[in-house]
Amino acid sequence: MSIRTIAGDCLVHTDGRRGRTVRGRVLVVIKPDNTVLVHDVDGYQPVAWLTRPDSVSITRDPLWLVASEGAETLRVEAVGEVAIAEHDATEAGTPVGSCRCGGPLVRSGSAVVCLDCAERFGLPSGASMTDSTCDCGLPRFRVERGGEFELCLDYACDSLLDAVSDRFDHEWDCPNCDGELRILRRGGLIAGCERYPDCDTGFAVPDGTVAGSCECGLTLFETASGTRCLDGTCPDADADAA
Ligand SMILES: [Zn+2]
Ligand SMILES: [Zn+2]
Ligand SMILES: [Zn+2]
Ligand SMILES: [Zn+2]
Protein backbone atom coordinates (compact mmCIF):
# COMPACT_ATOMS: atom_id res chain seq x y z
CA MET A 1 0.00 0.00 0.00
CA SER A 2 1.12 3.51 -0.60
CA ILE A 3 0.34 7.10 0.22
CA ARG A 4 0.67 9.50 -2.71
CA THR A 5 1.56 13.14 -2.30
CA ILE A 6 1.52 16.18 -4.51
CA ALA A 7 3.42 19.25 -3.30
CA GLY A 8 3.59 22.69 -4.88
CA ASP A 9 1.62 25.69 -6.10
CA CYS A 10 -1.91 24.52 -6.82
CA LEU A 11 -5.40 25.77 -7.40
CA VAL A 12 -7.85 23.80 -5.30
CA HIS A 13 -11.49 23.83 -6.37
CA THR A 14 -14.25 22.38 -4.25
CA ASP A 15 -17.87 22.04 -5.35
CA GLY A 16 -20.84 21.15 -3.23
CA ARG A 17 -21.44 22.34 0.30
CA ARG A 18 -17.97 23.82 0.87
CA GLY A 19 -17.65 25.15 -2.68
CA ARG A 20 -14.75 27.60 -3.25
CA THR A 21 -11.40 27.97 -5.00
CA VAL A 22 -8.14 28.61 -3.18
CA ARG A 23 -4.55 28.83 -4.36
CA GLY A 24 -1.37 28.20 -2.38
CA ARG A 25 1.77 26.10 -2.00
CA VAL A 26 0.14 23.06 -0.50
CA LEU A 27 0.67 19.40 0.23
CA VAL A 28 -1.97 17.06 -1.14
CA VAL A 29 -2.14 13.64 0.53
CA ILE A 30 -3.99 10.79 -1.20
CA LYS A 31 -4.52 7.83 1.13
CA PRO A 32 -5.05 4.21 0.05
CA ASP A 33 -8.81 4.51 0.67
CA ASN A 34 -8.79 7.49 -1.76
CA THR A 35 -9.30 10.09 0.97
CA VAL A 36 -7.76 13.35 -0.28
CA LEU A 37 -6.40 15.91 2.18
CA VAL A 38 -5.05 19.29 1.07
CA HIS A 39 -2.81 20.89 3.71
CA ASP A 40 -1.48 24.44 3.77
CA VAL A 41 0.76 26.01 6.45
CA ASP A 42 -2.14 27.16 8.59
CA GLY A 43 -3.34 25.19 11.62
CA TYR A 44 -3.76 21.45 11.69
CA GLN A 45 -6.91 21.12 9.61
CA PRO A 46 -6.75 20.49 5.88
CA VAL A 47 -7.76 23.52 3.81
CA ALA A 48 -9.84 21.14 1.68
CA TRP A 49 -10.61 17.44 1.83
CA LEU A 50 -12.85 14.67 0.59
CA THR A 51 -13.30 11.57 2.72
CA ARG A 52 -13.27 8.20 0.91
CA PRO A 53 -14.54 9.53 -2.43
CA ASP A 54 -16.04 7.11 -4.98
CA SER A 55 -13.32 7.97 -7.45
CA VAL A 56 -9.98 9.70 -7.68
CA SER A 57 -8.20 10.25 -10.95
CA ILE A 58 -4.85 11.87 -11.48
CA THR A 59 -3.62 13.03 -14.88
CA ARG A 60 -0.17 14.47 -15.51
CA ASP A 61 1.13 17.23 -17.79
CA PRO A 62 -0.64 19.30 -16.78
CA LEU A 63 -1.36 17.81 -13.38
CA TRP A 64 -4.98 17.45 -12.43
CA LEU A 65 -6.47 15.54 -9.59
CA VAL A 66 -10.21 15.02 -9.59
CA ALA A 67 -11.95 13.34 -6.67
CA SER A 68 -15.70 12.97 -6.50
CA GLU A 69 -18.17 11.69 -3.99
CA GLY A 70 -21.84 12.10 -4.91
CA ALA A 71 -22.46 15.80 -5.58
CA GLU A 72 -19.11 16.83 -4.06
CA THR A 73 -16.01 17.26 -6.15
CA LEU A 74 -12.48 18.24 -5.19
CA ARG A 75 -10.13 19.27 -8.00
CA VAL A 76 -6.47 20.12 -7.68
CA GLU A 77 -4.77 21.86 -10.57
CA ALA A 78 -1.02 22.46 -10.57
CA VAL A 79 -0.13 26.05 -11.38
CA GLY A 80 3.61 25.55 -11.75
CA GLU A 81 6.07 22.76 -11.02
CA VAL A 82 4.83 20.25 -8.49
CA ALA A 83 6.50 17.24 -6.88
CA ILE A 84 4.50 14.03 -7.13
CA ALA A 85 5.57 11.05 -5.04
CA GLU A 86 4.39 7.63 -4.00
CA HIS A 87 5.46 6.44 -0.54
CA ASP A 88 5.40 2.88 0.80
CA ALA A 89 3.12 3.06 3.82
CA THR A 90 1.65 0.77 6.46
CA GLU A 91 -0.80 1.11 9.30
CA ALA A 92 0.77 2.41 12.52
CA GLY A 93 0.49 0.67 15.86
CA THR A 94 2.18 0.03 19.19
CA PRO A 95 5.52 -1.78 18.72
CA VAL A 96 5.27 -5.29 20.20
CA GLY A 97 8.48 -7.06 19.15
CA SER A 98 9.98 -8.68 16.09
CA CYS A 99 8.58 -10.84 13.35
CA ARG A 100 10.22 -14.11 12.25
CA CYS A 101 11.46 -12.19 9.20
CA GLY A 102 13.27 -9.76 11.51
CA GLY A 103 10.90 -6.89 10.74
CA PRO A 104 9.09 -4.84 13.37
CA LEU A 105 5.70 -6.03 14.63
CA VAL A 106 3.08 -3.52 15.68
CA ARG A 107 -0.31 -3.96 17.26
CA SER A 108 -3.07 -2.15 15.45
CA GLY A 109 -6.52 -2.73 16.93
CA SER A 110 -7.19 -6.46 17.17
CA ALA A 111 -4.30 -7.51 14.94
CA VAL A 112 -0.52 -7.68 15.06
CA VAL A 113 1.09 -6.90 11.71
CA CYS A 114 4.65 -7.00 10.43
CA LEU A 115 5.74 -3.79 8.74
CA ASP A 116 8.19 -5.67 6.48
CA CYS A 117 6.60 -8.92 5.31
CA ALA A 118 2.95 -7.89 5.86
CA GLU A 119 2.21 -11.03 7.90
CA ARG A 120 -0.90 -10.43 9.96
CA PHE A 121 -2.08 -12.19 13.11
CA GLY A 122 -5.55 -11.71 14.56
CA LEU A 123 -5.86 -11.43 18.35
CA PRO A 124 -8.81 -12.65 20.41
CA SER A 125 -10.69 -9.95 22.30
CA GLY A 126 -9.08 -8.84 25.55
CA ALA A 127 -5.62 -10.13 24.54
CA SER A 128 -2.51 -8.33 25.73
CA MET A 129 1.03 -8.84 24.45
CA THR A 130 3.74 -10.32 26.70
CA ASP A 131 7.53 -10.10 26.71
CA SER A 132 7.90 -13.85 26.22
CA THR A 133 8.76 -15.38 22.87
CA CYS A 134 7.63 -18.65 21.29
CA ASP A 135 10.22 -21.14 20.00
CA CYS A 136 9.21 -20.04 16.50
CA GLY A 137 10.48 -16.52 17.27
CA LEU A 138 7.15 -14.69 17.55
CA PRO A 139 6.02 -12.91 20.72
CA ARG A 140 3.23 -14.46 22.78
CA PHE A 141 0.02 -12.87 23.97
CA ARG A 142 -1.96 -13.43 27.15
CA VAL A 143 -5.71 -13.87 27.23
CA GLU A 144 -8.26 -14.97 29.83
CA ARG A 145 -10.93 -17.51 28.97
CA GLY A 146 -11.85 -19.15 32.26
CA GLY A 147 -8.13 -19.34 33.07
CA GLU A 148 -5.12 -17.40 31.89
CA PHE A 149 -3.50 -18.59 28.65
CA GLU A 150 -0.24 -17.50 27.09
CA LEU A 151 -0.11 -18.32 23.39
CA CYS A 152 1.97 -17.74 20.28
CA LEU A 153 0.61 -15.28 17.70
CA ASP A 154 0.71 -18.08 15.14
CA TYR A 155 -2.23 -20.53 15.21
CA ALA A 156 0.14 -23.17 13.84
CA CYS A 157 2.03 -23.08 17.19
CA ASP A 158 -0.83 -22.58 19.67
CA SER A 159 -4.58 -22.62 19.27
CA LEU A 160 -6.74 -20.81 21.82
CA LEU A 161 -9.55 -23.26 21.08
CA ASP A 162 -7.32 -26.26 21.88
CA ALA A 163 -5.91 -24.64 25.01
CA VAL A 164 -9.35 -23.73 26.42
CA SER A 165 -10.86 -27.09 25.37
CA ASP A 166 -8.06 -28.98 27.11
CA ARG A 167 -8.89 -27.20 30.34
CA PHE A 168 -12.66 -26.74 30.25
CA ASP A 169 -14.25 -29.29 27.90
CA HIS A 170 -16.84 -31.22 29.94
CA GLU A 171 -15.98 -29.17 33.05
CA TRP A 172 -19.34 -27.44 33.28
CA ASP A 173 -22.81 -29.03 33.34
CA CYS A 174 -25.52 -27.86 31.00
CA PRO A 175 -28.20 -26.03 33.03
CA ASN A 176 -30.99 -27.16 30.68
CA CYS A 177 -30.38 -30.91 30.34
CA ASP A 178 -28.11 -33.54 31.86
CA GLY A 179 -25.41 -33.01 29.24
CA GLU A 180 -22.08 -31.26 29.69
CA LEU A 181 -20.73 -28.18 27.96
CA ARG A 182 -18.05 -28.39 25.29
CA ILE A 183 -15.75 -25.61 24.10
CA LEU A 184 -16.44 -24.68 20.49
CA ARG A 185 -15.56 -21.89 18.12
CA ARG A 186 -18.49 -19.83 16.83
CA GLY A 187 -16.73 -16.60 15.94
CA GLY A 188 -15.44 -16.36 19.52
CA LEU A 189 -15.31 -19.31 21.90
CA ILE A 190 -18.53 -20.67 23.31
CA ALA A 191 -19.37 -23.33 25.88
CA GLY A 192 -22.12 -25.25 24.10
CA CYS A 193 -24.12 -28.31 25.13
CA GLU A 194 -22.74 -31.66 23.93
CA ARG A 195 -26.35 -32.71 23.22
CA TYR A 196 -26.68 -30.18 20.39
CA PRO A 197 -28.93 -30.18 18.31
CA ASP A 198 -31.29 -31.72 20.90
CA CYS A 199 -30.21 -28.97 23.32
CA ASP A 200 -29.08 -25.62 21.91
CA THR A 201 -27.71 -24.17 25.16
CA GLY A 202 -24.55 -22.12 24.58
CA PHE A 203 -22.71 -19.29 26.31
CA ALA A 204 -19.81 -17.14 25.12
CA VAL A 205 -16.76 -18.00 27.27
CA PRO A 206 -16.18 -14.76 29.23
CA ASP A 207 -12.98 -12.74 29.04
CA GLY A 208 -12.05 -13.51 32.66
CA THR A 209 -10.99 -16.23 35.11
CA VAL A 210 -13.10 -18.76 37.02
CA ALA A 211 -14.12 -17.39 40.42
CA GLY A 212 -16.42 -19.93 42.06
CA SER A 213 -20.04 -20.85 41.45
CA CYS A 214 -23.05 -18.71 40.79
CA GLU A 215 -26.25 -19.27 42.80
CA CYS A 216 -27.81 -20.56 39.59
CA GLY A 217 -25.28 -23.40 39.55
CA LEU A 218 -23.13 -22.17 36.67
CA THR A 219 -19.56 -20.93 36.98
CA LEU A 220 -18.72 -17.37 37.94
CA PHE A 221 -15.97 -15.37 36.23
CA GLU A 222 -13.87 -12.47 37.46
CA THR A 223 -13.67 -10.03 34.54
CA ALA A 224 -12.32 -6.50 34.08
CA SER A 225 -15.89 -5.20 34.48
CA GLY A 226 -16.74 -7.26 37.58
CA THR A 227 -17.98 -10.73 38.50
CA ARG A 228 -20.33 -12.36 36.05
CA CYS A 229 -22.02 -15.69 35.48
CA LEU A 230 -21.19 -17.92 32.49
CA ASP A 231 -24.75 -17.03 31.48
CA GLY A 232 -24.44 -13.30 30.72
CA THR A 233 -28.17 -12.82 31.34
CA CYS A 234 -28.19 -14.54 34.76
CA PRO A 235 -29.88 -12.29 37.39
CA ASP A 236 -28.16 -14.10 40.32
CA ALA A 237 -24.70 -12.85 39.20
CA ASP A 238 -25.86 -9.22 39.21
CA ALA A 239 -26.98 -9.62 42.83
CA ASP A 240 -23.60 -11.12 43.63
CA ALA A 241 -21.62 -8.33 42.02
CA ALA A 242 -23.69 -5.63 43.77
ZN1 LIG B 1 7.70 -10.20 8.94
ZN1 LIG C 1 5.17 -19.79 17.62
ZN1 LIG D 1 -27.96 -29.16 27.27
ZN1 LIG E 1 -25.72 -17.57 37.26
Counting DSSP H or I runs of 4 or more residues, the number of helices is 2
- Rough outline: elongated
The biggest sheet, with number of strands, parallel, antiparallel or mixed sense and barrel status, is:
7 strands, antiparallel
CATH class of the largest domain: Mainly Beta
| Low confidence ranges | none
The rounded Rg comes to 26 Å
Order of helices and strands: EEEEEEEEEEEEEEHEEEEEEH
* Chemical compounds bound to the protein: zinc ion
Q: Approximately what portion of the residues adopt beta-strand conformation? A: over 45%
Structural class: mainly beta
In short:
The chain is mainly beta and 242 residues long. Helix content is 7%, strand content 52%. The chain folds into three domains: 2-88, Protein Yojf, Chain: A, CATH 2.70.180.20; 94-158, no CATH class; 165-241, no CATH class.
